[in-house]
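in:
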């Protein structure tokens, strides 16, 4: 085996530094939410914990986020297959659903207020507000990534290049990550309220 062949094979097995940085960021974000989870569970055990049903809008928002994730993944598949129309259209649909998710979260917070659950009230409500706000902030960051991806999709001539593929994979990874994170939080909220 020649040195060039060995170097090419070795290079293919390495993760790109940008992708590695994104993975480290996702792990860091998850660790932050794990710390919030620990505080949530410990505080609940301390007593003075108000149990309340999660707003229905939070469940609808989970469906919206999952659908958005599925559409973005389909967009990636069509990107690789060379179908520019479906690649762009599904990406735009995923973006719109990302905006809809944030709006659904806002409606969920309004439902909590209607139930008498305020930010400065019982700690159980305060935790739900803070955790869902921090998550929504990360989703808004993902929406920013989708905006950049759409600018590339709609303004550049369609080509599948290693750089474009990696950028799309990074966007997709982060979007799936915030999707997973919301499902995790929703399961936490429901399991601790019953």
């Amino acid at each position: 085996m020649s040195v060039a062949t060995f170097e090419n094979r070795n290079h293919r097995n390495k993760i790109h530094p940008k992708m590695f940085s994104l993975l480290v960021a996702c792990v860091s974000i998850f660790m932050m939410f794990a710390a919030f989870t620990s505080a949530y569970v410990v505080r609940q055990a301390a007593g003075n914990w108000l149990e309340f049903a999660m707003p229905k809008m939070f469940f609808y928002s989970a469906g919206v986020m999952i659908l958005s994730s599925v559409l973005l993944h389909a967009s990636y598949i069509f990107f690789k297959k060379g179908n520019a129309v479906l690649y762009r259209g599904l990406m735009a649909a995923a973006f719109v659903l990302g905006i809809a998710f944030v709006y659904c979260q806002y409606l969920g917070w309004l439902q909590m207020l209607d139930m008498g659950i305020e930010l400065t009230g019982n700690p159980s409500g305060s935790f739900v507000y803070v955790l869902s706000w921090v998550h929504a902030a990360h989703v808004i960051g993902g929406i920013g990534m989708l905006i950049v991806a759409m600018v590339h999709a709609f303004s550049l001539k369609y080509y599948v290049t290693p750089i474009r593929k990696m950028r799309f994979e990074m966007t997709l990874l982060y979007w799936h990550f915030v999707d997973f994170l919301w499902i995790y939080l929703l399961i936490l909220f429901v399991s601790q309220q019953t």
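note: Residues 18-193 form a domain with the Four Helix Bundle (Hemerythrin (Met), subunit A) fold (CATH 1.20.120.80).
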